Amino acid sequence: MTEPGALRFTHHSRVGMGSEQLWVVAACFNEEAVIIRFIERVLALPQVSRLLLIDDGSSDATVAVIRAWQQSHPDQGLTLLELTRNFGKEAAMLAGLDFADGRCGAAVLIDSDLQHPPERIPAMVKAWQEGAEVVTAVRDDSDAEGLMKVATASWFYRVFNRLVDSIQLQEGAGDFRLLSAPVIEAVIQMREATRFSKGLMPWTGYRSVEIPYSRVARAGGATSWSSLKLWRYALDGIFSFSVKPLKVWGLIGLLISLFSFLYAALIVLRTVVFGVDLPGYASLIVAILFLGGIQLIGIGVLGEYIGRIYIDVKRRPHYFIRAVYEP
């Protein structure tokens, strides 16, 4: 067990040690109801050398359950990183990749709620052994999530791909991926405060192979992703990879200015032809409210970018580790 406050890990040589090992990396948050089933299904796979769990500040007995299983199965290859608080899934995944970097030949990122079936890992390993640098699991049409969630996710992928030029996201692709050692090293070099791993991984440009999987309903517990959190995460993805929202509002401002100029010219023409004309109070109020709303929305979009700059320049660590539990 490592003492509290550990932040950095000593990386093993990238040649030799761990070059053929496959690690499975999973973040956990209040998963006491399902975590044992997840551990047993993952470690039952002969391809898996080690399972690395990152507890992201669970308020239930997740850590205690994992520790009890670990102590009763000391030779099963289970490691637990316990973070000091809930830093978020992105930070927890980064902590896992930081720990795995240099220790394995590839790592599979997977959710611990069993919506990502561990039984697809052998197919991912096969693709990796055949030369793939990234293996991305893509949801098929038999998705157990609600229609509204599936529809909004599809809408997000379409909007993202329209706004972002540098990468294109595969609809149905999430965090369930196998990353080879060079990809792990590349991903952990990107330390921006607002992380969107679904975009960071394809942005690296490494060769990717896609395999299908069926996402099932949660095996237990409740999701911590509310509609508001999903909305914020979608905004993080768009604002992290595109400045087009800023350009769009610049274009809107130009069009409104052009419309105002044409309207002013119309008023001048009416005054010259028909004499002095007093505009109506209602139309004036509507115009003021419309322009005020446009300005506030534009300021809000600008604030999203400035807020991210403010958070990023402070360069705070993404996470703190209370302890590392190894067999």
UniProtKB/TrEMBL annotation:
One of its GO terms (cellular component) is plasma membrane. Gene3D superfamilies: Spore Coat Polysaccharide Biosynthesis Protein SpsA, Chain A. InterPro entries: Glyco_trans_2-like (IPR001173), Glycosyltransferase_2 (IPR050256), Nucleotide-diphossugar_trans (IPR029044). The chain crosses the membrane at residues 248-269, 281-306. The keyword Secreted does not apply. Keywords: Cell membrane, Glycosyltransferase, Lipopolysaccharide biosynthesis, Membrane, Transferase, Transmembrane, Transmembrane helix. It comes from the Bacteria. The keyword ATP-binding does not apply. Residues 24-184 form the Glycosyltransferase 2-like domain. GO terms for molecular function: glycosyltransferase activity. GO terms for biological process: lipopolysaccharide biosynthetic process. This is Glycosyl transferase family protein. The lineage of its organism: Bacteria, Bacillati, Cyanobacteriota, Cyanophyceae, Synechococcales.
